[in-house]
Specification:
The complex is a heterodimer of chains A (about 150) and B (about 90).
Chain A: H1 3-10, H2 19-39, H3 42-47, H4 54-64, H5 72-80, H6 89-97, H7 108-125, H8 129-138
Helix pairs in contact in A: 1-2, 6-8
Chain B: H1 9-20, H2 23-29, H3 36-40, H4 44-55, H5 62-68
The chains are: A mainly alpha (about 150), B mainly alpha (about 90).
Chain lengths: ~150, ~90
């Protein structure tokens, strides 16, 4: 898909008006294609991540994908049904107030500390990261639905 | 992790139960993710589509973008796994 065509599509009011967002479609499609060629499928690649290193998948999406940093990558994974915790407001607040993380939310240190805590809770309970994430949120703060 | 004692999952769970009106209510609110086998079986175009929905939720998904844009975009995806996206 040439740039010129992407620009044309980005200005088409019938579909989408954000050029940068349209650009990410191609970039992320290429990322998926590259991984699929290397690993057989993107699904196989994603399934290879475990409970204790799921934030490495977040980091991969941030590094290799386009506009998939912050919460976007994890929320995309969640939307697809892939097991991950999320930094919802309640979860973040819990982790900060309990001194599990400090500083930047998406710093390597915070991601690693949060992942370690969730992996520990998984070990204790046998529950998925998704369920634990929701339970942490429901136990804390304003209980936002997405957790 | 900082030098802090990690609260037990059981303690967090009990508090969530109390706040949400009991164990049954809480459990009904939880959703299970896909299994590894199910994740492995997700076709590449589903990932693409999931990403699209996030990126273009303000207006339209990019699957929609591609379909609305007509056949002109399709040749650019031919010969690759991306053909499935169109």
């Amino acid at each position: 898909m040439p740039d010129e065509m992407l620009e044309q599509k980005a200005s088409d009011k019938r579909i989408v008006r954000n050029y940068k967002k349209v650009m990410t479609v191609r970039d992320n499609a290429m990322m998926i294609k590259d991984v699929a060629l290397e690993r057989g499928s993107f699904g196989k690649f994603v399934a290879g991540f475990e409970k204790d290193n799921i934030t490495e998948l977040w980091a991969f999406l941030k590094k290799r994908g386009a506009r998939l940093g912050g919460n976007t990558g994890p929320y995309m994974l969640r939307a697809l049904g892939i097991d991950t915790f999320l930094f919802s407001r309640d979860v973040e607040d819990y982790l900060r107030k309990n001194d599990i993380i400090d500083g930047g939310l998406t710093s390597k240190k915070s991601l690693s500390a949060a992942n370690a805590a969730f992996a520990q809770w998984h070990e204790e309970s046998g529950r998925s990261l998704q369920e634990i994430s929701a339970i942490v949120a429901y136990s804390w703060g304003t209980n936002n639905q997405v957790a | 992790m900082k030098e802090s004692k990690l609260e037990s999952f059981q303690s967090i769970y009990r508090r969530a139960c109390e706040r949400k009106g009991g164990e049954r209510v809480l459990e009904a609110m939880l959703q299970a993710p896909l299994s590894k086998a199910q994740i492995e079986a997700i076709p590449d175009d589903r990932f693409f589509s999931g990403d699209d929905q996030k990126k273009c939720s303000s207006r339209a998904s990019c699957g929609e973008l591609l379909s609305k844009s007509g056949p002109t975009l399709k040749p650019y995806f031919s010969g690759s796994t991306l053909i499935k996206c169109c």
